[in-house]
Structure formats: structure tokens, C-alpha cells
Amino acid sequence: MSMSAGERSERTANPTQAFVPGHVTGFFSVHPHDDPRNAGSRGAGLALTDGVTVTLTPANETAATTITLGGESVEMAAVTRTLDTLDVAARVAVETPLPVSAGFGVSGGAALGAAFAANACFDLERTENELVEVAHAAEVAAGTGLGDVVAQARGGVPLRLEPGAPPHGALDGIPVRADRRIEYVSFGGRSTEAILSGDTDILSAAGERALATLREAPTLEHLVSCSAAFAREAELLTERVDAAIAAVEAAGGAASMAMLGETVFALDTGLSDAGYEPSICAIHPPGAGVVRPDAK
Amino acid sequence: MSMSAGERSERTANPTQAFVPGHVTGFFSVHPHDDPRNAGSRGAGLALTDGVTVTLTPANETAATTITLGGESVEMAAVTRTLDTLDVAARVAVETPLPVSAGFGVSGGAALGAAFAANACFDLERTENELVEVAHAAEVAAGTGLGDVVAQARGGVPLRLEPGAPPHGALDGIPVRADRRIEYVSFGGRSTEAILSGDTDILSAAGERALATLREAPTLEHLVSCSAAFAREAELLTERVDAAIAAVEAAGGAASMAMLGETVFALDTGLSDAGYEPSICAIHPPGAGVVRPDAK
């Protein structure tokens, strides 16, 4: 009697863990394409030490009941699509200190982490670019993000110069020291799908302007000021976000809004200095990777 | 009275430190080009936690007397060219636990570290790709290396798919866990310049074959076996290196030769198991970066 792929997997592989940095996008433009591998965004953001840990265990099928976020069953279309593309079935447990749907790339991180963990767990022999392509295409097809996956795979302070997964897209980065402190507060979630499915012309024009301006003087401080200008021009600011950015700037700091969430991020002690009680993390130079392979 | 750039630098900037992972190339092919930014190598290797720390201080000129390696004055043409291209003058102190001219990318690491440190120290506002391009071109022009700089900038287990600095070159990577142990022993140095200035046709043909073979099943173990085949086909093995690789393989491990040095690297405890007393390090997932900016 022959075994199915699922049965074979259950017998030969063990739990595997991957870590993917969180990612806040400061500004972006939307670049649709019929092929989700080529679709994506241009823009800039920060990869964060607060990230997404994915623990993957072989299973007979990947289903809604086999994906958990903080212990609760959730539907994560980007994760399901990633595993389907890789032709494996697994249970996936996602853990993160980051708020969900608040602009930190949790869904993209879960997809990318699942891809890296599955590659190690099932000995898929894919390269890093191939895994990034699978997770990016799954995230784009799910409608939950356009640029987080390629940025999270790179780490640091990624500039997304051309949209899409490798080898289609092109990245650069702003050099910063590894332990540069980042603070954030989140007032709630925004639906990336709802905004991306609407008219994005004004947003994209503002995003293209921000990228061109940043490239004239690519520093972290300039990234944040270009992001704040973008958030205003694209009319994405809520009252609470607007007030927090203004408070940080009044205290001499630099802050902007995470795309897309009702979230403010600041350099150094910006939010603390303005009287907020932020979460504290740092820039994460490495990209996604496997942290605990199977028990072999 | 107007100040020169050097005088201005002395007054406004402080010491800055960058870290660059070491890098052993397992196999490579040579791809010359009139423009050193486009010249380079295809191949594969490992970025290592044993690396190069560069401490840079503004100076009135960059000269032989202003560059030190382990406290001794040295000539490092790749470093001098890097600083000249960036139009700054500095004292550069290079420290490393790695043997020099033994295939670990110390010269490329010194050039890349100097580029990152100079960017932070002098507020040059260059992107990471731009800094990599400057250091890569300096290393190629100096004749001391063809592919270490782009690999060291990336980290992990870099596959050099297309030669040259970004945006000319193209990289991928083999996913491995961060703490994967690597051992090495070095019996002495080989001159990269001497080998690269000779006939490299046989070497390059073997390197292209190794890359094509590795890409059929891109794993770390396969990288090492493709490297060992390359070293034999390119006739680069010395007796001591050949004996060490054979001893590791006889003990059930995987080892090959670092290009270009009389150096053997092995996965996990390969050299220890074969009775050697190796240096021990690990794969280093992040690329080069500033670890201590100026005192601001």
C-alpha cells in the first residue's frame, strides 16, 4: 500500500521553528501584476527584533484547525497558500508579541516563517530566494500585504526599489547600527485588504514621491520624516495617530505611522519622551531564518 | 580661512566600528570585466561568526602608516581605495581572529568594514548597496578578491549567481540555522593575486559545473561536496589539505578547502572528529554592519 505525501511526512519529520522579524512600512506605492510573484510595492520600512516565531509540525492536512495564533485557531490564507505551494501539510503555531492587523507584517511573517520551517522540516531543498517567492506570492494572493515578506526576508532597514519577489524585485538598505532602539504604540487594527482594494492612486503617487525624496539622502531620520509626509498626503492618519506623531515631534523626536495599522513607531526614546508607554524593540539586521531545526 | 575635508572631518567625527563576517568560498568561477564593479565571481561559500572588526578614526590622510592589522602597520590596497573612492581620510585599525591570506576574506572584510564605518562616521548618506559596490570595486581593482565582499555583505550561506556588486550581481542563499557549527584549520596562506593572475580557464569551468550541480539540490552538505569536487578538478589541493579533507570524510564528516588559502573547513565537528584541533565558529546570518557608531 502506498503512502500519501501527508502520511510520509508524519513519519519522517519533526517540529521545526523559524523566526521572522516584524516589519513596519513607513511609505509605499502599489504595483499590481497578474502574476503575484511580480506584484508588490515600492517603499521603505524597518525590520524589528519583535517578530514572529513559527513552529511547524507535519500533519495529514493543512486546515483552519491546524493554524494557531497565540494558541487560538485562526484562518491565515497566506500560510495555507504557502504550504499548499510547497506541497506539504502541517500544523503551524504562530507566536508574536506584536499586535495583529496593526501594520507589523504578522501575516507575511507567518507565511515566510512557515516556508523556512517547512523547507527544513521536509528537506525541500529550496533556496532562500525560492522560499521568499513562495511566501510573497501567497501573501499577495491573499490580499494581506504587498511588501512585508521581501523586507522581512532581508532584515535591517529595507528599501523596496522594485516590486515583487526575487528575482523580479530589487532591494537596497539604509545602514544603521544593530541595536538602534525603536518604540511603538498601537491603538488598533486597520484592514490592509480594505485599503488595498480601494482607489490607491493618490497613495501611490505620494509613495513614489517619498521614495524619490528619501533616495536623495538615505538616512533613518529622513525615512521617518518622508513617512510622516506620506501618511499626511495619502490621508491615512487617524486622530490618535496624528496626535501621537505631533507629540513626539514636539518633544524633539521622530515618529510616523505603520502601514497599515493605527500604529505609531518612533526612533530611540521618541514616544517615551512624549509621555506614552510604548513597546520597545530594536532594528533587526538579519532576515528570516530557521532557529530550531528538527530533532535530528 | 576655509577648512579642507580632512580638517573638517577631524573636528566633526569620532571613532566608529563595523563588523564584517569572515567568508570561505567553496568554489568559484572568474568573470573579468573592464569595470571592476561588474567584474567578480560566481560561486558559493559560508559567512562566519569569526570575522573582521574595523575601527575607523578621521585623519588628515589615508596612508600606509594609518592602516593597522592586529596593531601592525600594513598595506591594504582595498581599504585605501575604498576610502579614496568615498573621498575621506582615516586611520583604520583591523582586528580579526582569522588567519590572513588564508581564504577567509580578511582583505574584503576590511574594505567593506571601512566603507560601513566611514559612512557612519562622516555622515556620507550612502545606501548599503552603494557601500558594497565601492568596497567590491576596490577589492577587485586591488586584485585581492572577486566575490568575498558581496557575500560578506549578505551573510548566511551566499550563492553568487551573477558576478559583480549590486545592482550588477545577483545573490541567493541556502537556508541554514543560525548556530550551525563550522570548524577550520589553516596550514598557511596562498596568494589570491598569484592564482587569479594566472590561467583560470580550468578553474572557472570546474566552478561553473559545481554551481550548476549545487543548484540541483541546494543544501549545505551538497555545497561542501561540490566544493571538494571543485578543489580536486581545479588542482588547487595541497598535500596537507587533501589529507585533512580525506580524514574528515573517513570519520563520516564533510570538509573542503577555503578558496584561496591552505585552509580546510568542515561542517559541525568534522575536523575534531578526525583528530584535528580546529578553530570553532558558526554560520553568521546577518551581513556587514556598524556595531558602534560615534559617541553622539
From TrEMBL, chains A, B:
<keyword id="KW-0418">Kinase</keyword>
<keyword id="KW-0808">Transferase</keyword>
<comment type="similarity">
    <text>Belongs to the GHMP kinase family. PoK subfamily.</text>
</comment>
<dbReference type="InterPro" id="IPR014721">
    <property type="entry name" value="Ribsml_uS5_D2-typ_fold_subgr"/>
</dbReference>
<keyword id="KW-0173">Coenzyme A biosynthesis</keyword>
<dbReference type="Pfam" id="PF00288">
    <property type="entry name" value="GHMP_kinases_N"/>
</dbReference>
<dbReference type="InterPro" id="IPR020568">
    <property type="entry name" value="Ribosomal_Su5_D2-typ_SF"/>
</dbReference>
<dbReference type="GO" id="GO:0015937">
    <property type="term" value="P:coenzyme A biosynthetic process"/>
</dbReference>
<feature type="region of interest" description="Disordered">
    <location>
        <begin position="1"/>
        <end position="20"/>
    </location>
</feature>
<keyword id="KW-0547">Nucleotide-binding</keyword>
<protein>
    <recommendedName>
        <fullName>Pantoate kinase</fullName>
        <ecNumber>2.7.1.169</ecNumber>
    </recommendedName>
</protein>
<dbReference type="GO" id="GO:0016301">
    <property type="term" value="F:kinase activity"/>
</dbReference>
<keyword id="KW-0067">ATP-binding</keyword>
<comment type="pathway">
    <text>Cofactor biosynthesis; coenzyme A biosynthesis.</text>
</comment>
<dbReference type="GO" id="GO:0005524">
    <property type="term" value="F:ATP binding"/>
</dbReference>
<feature type="domain" description="GHMP kinase N-terminal">
    <location>
        <begin position="84"/>
        <end position="156"/>
    </location>
</feature>
<comment type="function">
    <text>Phosphorylates (R)-pantoate to form (R)-4-phosphopantoate in the CoA biosynthesis pathway.</text>
</comment>
<dbReference type="InterPro" id="IPR012043">
    <property type="entry name" value="PoK"/>
</dbReference>
<dbReference type="InterPro" id="IPR006204">
    <property type="entry name" value="GHMP_kinase_N_dom"/>
</dbReference>
